[in-house]
Design brief:
This protein is an alpha/beta fold and about 110 residues long. The chain contains 4 helices and 5 strands; from the N terminus they run E-E-H-E-H-E-H-E-H. The protein has one domain: 2-Layer Sandwich (Transcription Regulator spoIIAA). The longest helix is centred in the middle third of the chain and has 16 residues.
Length: about 110
């Protein structure tokens, strides 16, 4: 898995690509999120458009990141879900927890 960080209007956008799975990115995503929060970056947007696979550990990582952000007074939102990820979040009812966007400008503006 690869994570690229960029910032727009005080929103840290993490462009995530590859597999979000046990041993293939779950701990990397949690670590990157904790690092951002430690640096005072409270508005996080995960761009999942290039994520090819998510397993239960990947879902756990998303929940862990969401919880960490909330605990630190931050917010985490999701951007560009693939159909498979959207279906997975719907089946597990996690879709009701996350704010999800299909447009980056709209997602960034939602943090204001």
């Amino acid at each position: 898995m690869n994570i690229t960080e960029r910032t727009t209007n005080d929103v840290v956008i993490l462009d995530i690509s590859g597999k979000l799975a046990l041993g293939e990115g779950d701990t990397q995503l949690i670590g990157t999120t904790r690092e951002a929060l430690t640096e005072g970056k409270k508005n996080l947007l995960f761009n999942l458009s290039d994520v090819t696979y998510v397993d239960s550990a990947g879902l756990g990582a998303l929940i862990s990141c969401y919880s960490s952000a909330a605990r630190e007074g931050g917010r985490l939102k999701l951007l560009h879900l693939t159909r498979k990820i959207q279906d997975l979040l719907a089946i597990t009812r996690l879709i009701t927890i996350f704010e999800i966007y299909n447009d980056e400008r709209e997602a960034v503006a939602s943090f204001a």
